[in-house]
Amino acid sequence: MARLIEVTPETSWKFNWKSSKSCGRALEDLLELREKALDNPLKADDTLSCYGPSLFPCTIKCNTTPTSPSYRTPISLLLEPPRNDLNSPLVLRLVQPLQTGTDCFGQVWKCHVIAHPNFRSSADSPPITVVLKLYQQSLAPLPAWEVMCRRVTERYCPIDHVARREDKASELLSNLQGTFLPYSYGIYEFEPPCGEKSWGHITEFIDGLTFGDFVMAHKDNRMVLEQLFTSFMRDIVKLGPQGIEHDDIRQDNILVIPSSSPSSPPSPVLIDFGSSVIWDCTDPEFDSQSLYRNLQEFLWLCDEYDCLKDIVEAWQEQE
Question: Where is the Protein kinase domain (predicted)?
Fold first, then answer.
């Protein structure tokens, strides 16, 4: 069996898994942090600042050469690493919550870049829109307590493990950024109002509909649905050779950019690789054909929509 790539060599949250006393203290600390976060929540018009370059520079390796009709131009300014200047931070203004609250692996906001070490915005400048996914440990799912064993379950995933997986997936799939994936502009450290220092992943803002909303809006247009299905199937198979199992393909994790002309297909964009499984594709035992789960998860999703069932059946008959 092929090896998994170890993308979580360390975590900022350390304790003895097998010690009930250590686990208990860790849970108490988390609950205290959660209370502070809920008492001081992020809200629209808040600003978050960070200094210095991305914690993981490899996430900003982007495909800047158009290779597809669905290619989107990156924000060139954000491809340049910020200068390590304490007087010139990168500043984001929160505009709209996209996914927030407790038991989320990321607090996701639509943001505007209002300051950057490489530029100064002005009132006349159009806003630079991005997405910030803030990996806030206190608001992530809490560890499950195994009563019989009196310890935290080892299945628990600290939040920085999620961030590291997304970083590694962005690196391995950099050639798909700007088409099938959003651009990744780096992971930085921010401090929200509650004072809990947290990593934050800045990515491209995709102005589109969720997969489910797009399908229902075009449920009577078989041609558009066939174009969407074909586009996604063409690109999803490109994850396997890089050893990536997304492991969370659902309607909220596929955004669809409507076509700009009748002759062009809609452009699906796959987001959220926080649950991904990453295999070592250099292992002699690795076989990308075995990573059928990406394909299977998408077919299961399509099966939830009556208007897509005929399209899926027609594809299966051709295989």
Answer: 94-319
Domain count, the chain: 2
SS3 249: coil
- Distance of alpha carbon 51 from alpha carbon 32, whole angstroms: 27
Do 130 and 220 belong together in one domain?
no
- pTM for the predicted model, two decimal places: 0.89
| Domain that residue 295 falls in | 209-318
Return the structure tokens found at 101. Answer: 């609250």
As beta bridge partners, residue 146 has 151
Alpha carbon distance, N-terminus to C-terminus of the chain? 26
Span 169-211, pLDDT tens digits: 999 999 899 999 999 999 999 999 999 999 999 999 999 999 9
Pairwise pLDDT comparison (150 vs 26), residue with the higher score:
26
Identify the three-state secondary structure at position 95.
strand
Tokens in use for 237? 């198979």
For residues 63 and 188, membership in a common domain is answered with: yes
Q: pLDDT tens digits, residue range 271-312?
A: 999 989 898 888 888 877 767 889 999 999 999 999 999 999
Same domain, 93 and 170: yes
SS3 state at 211? helix
